[in-house]
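ok so I'm stuck.
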Amino acid sequence: MVELDIWWLLPLVISLLIGAICPATGALLITQRRVLLANLMAHSVLPGLVIALAIGIDPSIGGLVSGLLGALLAERLNRRFKGREEGAMNTVLAGFTALGVLLVPLLEARVDLETILFGDLLAANTADLVRTAISASALLAMVVWGYRDLVFIGIDPEGAAVAKRPVILIRLICSLITALVVISAITAVGVILVIGLLCAPVLMHVDRSRSLKELMLRSASTGLLLCGGGMMLAVAIDLPPGPLIGTLCLGLLFTYKIADQN
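replied:
not stuck anymore, here's the structure
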């Protein structure tokens, strides 16, 4: 009877963790002007997830490799199509998404595309919790290790390169952690809706935060409220948590904008 009463506890803990790490990661990406790359990576994990599930390995491994491949391909095309980077990146985004969908029937993979695309927080398990905890630990370690450089790169990336700071290494690590966070967030909101959780809480606080640390903390706090509240509301009114959290992101940002104008 006790287990029946607390069946929602594990999904709630995972939703709170994801609610904290997604906006915190989004704060780094927005200050570095790399949000489009994050959206690309969110879609690029799909082929790797499908392949991993088809051959019976941890989907995190496939998604991580696929997400990084998408990011590297996009960076290479950006150098080729200078001044037209958005077109190149959106083409890679669409191509990886299409490839992931095609691989499902080609590999005869037993994959629930709806769950991958939009999340299924109520079906979360211990492996999802461990995956999310690893992502949170990696994000925290990166911030502790390279906070000064993250601030420098966000303010003046060219100056950071001239000062011989490890810009390429930090961006590579940031891409790796972004992929980990996206894969963790698939449980809650899926690859389609994760970009809203990465961006909406950050956009609310970016103009009023005096430091990167303050922006990350404020954004993570808002994300906690969004995901925790969205999860419990979804249980109460019997709606899927992922789309509800995505809708709350939009509604909260719109309400904040209206209130700010007044």
